[in-house]
Amino acid sequence: MKRMISIDVETSGISPLRGSRVIEVAAVEIWNGQAVAEFASLIDVACCIHPAAERVHCISSEMLRGSPGPEEVWASFLKFAGNSPLIAHNAAFDIGFIRHELALLGLSLTNRSICTLKLARRRFPRLGSHRLEAVARHVLGGIPDDCSLHRALGDARLAGRVWVALNGS
Predict the structure, then answer these.
(1) What is the pLDDT along the chain (169 residues), one digit of tens a residue?
(2) Cα(122)–Cα(139) distance, rounded to whole angstroms?
(3) Domains and CATH numbers, the chain
(4) Terminal C-alpha separation, the chain
C-alpha cells in the first residue's frame, strides 16, 4: 500500500514574491487509488485578494474572517501530509506557494512532488488543453459532482482522481 496526498491551494494572487498568499488549502489522502481522508481550510491572512483571483475561486476577504490563522492551518497540513509524496496539477505553483507560506513560519516542506500537468502533457501531447478540467474530462469522462472547480478541496479531489487514472490504479 502506498500513501499519496493530492493537494491544491487557492491564492490571493499569482506570485508569493509580490505578496500573494495562500487563502485556502486542501489535501486528499489516497491509499491504493482510493481517497480515504480529507483536509481543507480557508486561511485568515492579512492580505488583499486580487479581483482576478477572486473571480476565479469566488473567495472574498469576508469569507476568510474567523477562519484559522496560518500557524494553525499549516501545522495541521504538515501533520496530515506527513512525509508522503504530494500530487498537484501544476505542482510548481502549489508547492512554491506552500513552501513560501511555511518559510514565513520558519518551517519547511521536504515531500517529493508529482505533477499531473507534466504527466498529462507527456501522455497526451495532442490534447487541446492541459488544464485540470480538460485533462479530467479526457481521462475521467467528465467532472465528478463532488469536485467543484477552482476551490481547493474540489481541485485536490480532481487532481487525485486524474493521477489515479493516469497511473491505471
Answers:
(1) 599 999 999 999 999 999 999 999 999 999 999 999 999 999 999 899 999 999 999 999 999 999 999 999 999 999 999 999 999 999 999 999 999 999 999 999 999 999 999 999 999 999 999 999 999 999 999 999 999 999 999 999 999 999 999 997 5
(2) 14
(3) 3-161 (3.30.420.10)
(4) 12
Length of the chain: 169
Cell of 37: 481522508
How far is C-alpha 107 from the geometric centre of its chain's CA atoms?
A: 19
136: left (phi over 0), alpha (psi -120 to 50) or beta: alpha
Nearest Cα to Cα of residue 55 among 20, 13, 97, 8: 13
Name the amino acid, one letter, at 138. H
Backbone torsion region of residue 94, taken as left when φ is above 0, otherwise alpha when ψ lies between -120 and 50, otherwise beta:
alpha
- Enter the pTM of the model: 0.95
Scanning the structure block, which residue is given the C-alpha cell 465528478? 144
